[in-house]
Every structure is written in C-alpha cells, then in structure tokens.
Amino acid sequence: MAVSKDEANDVFLGLLRVQKLLVAARNTAPRLEDGVDATAYPVLFVVAGAGTVRVSDIATTLHNDVSTVSRQVSALVSVGLLEKSADPSDGRASVVSLTERGRDALGRIQASRATWFQGLLSDWESPETAAFVSRLRELGDALDANLRARGAAPPPMPFHTPRQQQDQKQKED
User: What keywords are annotated for this sequence in UniProt (predicted)?
Assistant: First the structure.
C-alpha cells in the first residue's frame, strides 16, 4: 500500500525536526579539533571515502556550493588535516587527501559521534536500528535521485559511512 499524503507529511515534519535538532546540537558540541568547524566534518568524510578528490567533486557529493567547500578545504589544509596536490590527470587542477593527522582526527570525530548516538539510541534494539539505517539510506538515495532528475545536482560521488566502506571492501575481497 502506498504512503498517504498525511504519512508522507509526518515523515517530512519528523525529518525537519531532527535536522533542526542536529544543527542545534552541532552548534553546542565540543570542538574535537582546534580550528575545525563541525560544518567541515562532512568534507573529511567524503575525502576519507574517496581517497583523493577534487573540491568540485566534494561539493557535488555534499550538494553544496563549490565556494563554501573550497573555504572549508582551505581551513582543513591550514590546520593540517588535508593536503592539496596537483591533479595527476590535469595539472591545472588540484586534489585533496587526508593527512595522517586528518585520519587521526577523523577517527576521533567518528568515535565521539558514535558514542553520542549510542547514548541516544540506548533503548533501540540492533535489528530495528539496522532496519532504520537501511530505510534512511533508501530515503537518501531517493532524494538524491530526485534532485538529479530535476537537474538540481550533477551525479555525486559515493558518500559512504565507514561501516558502508568496510562492507563494500568485504564484498570486493
């Protein structure tokens, strides 16, 4: 049976509430890395998943403005979490990758977030959590596809969580 308009609106309003609460939480969360704004964390996640990537590809993946991502990348380079190098396929462009310090910082960030969310989900059972994550991914994929179909965004690079990256590597091995 298809989702009703009322049910769809309930999902939308629930997600809107969660989005606003996450923004509020981000603004009050302790800084784990000096000089790194929490809004730049997704940049680190994308670079970690891609290995070496152009700023424009990061922006595409995050559905964000290139100038915003460029500023975030510059800030992350200045604190030593990312490094820039010439793009081997086009020397006029540059690519970014994580430094060793960036990998360490990313590990701390992910561990801190995981601990926080583990506390928020303390009453959840593992199977229902897995089902929720699966449906959340499906919703994200549907929204992403809808944006691309409407020309609102070019095709992104994969944006995977560390768990998804680990699962993908296991499938490939």
Answer: DNA-binding, Transcription, Transcription regulation
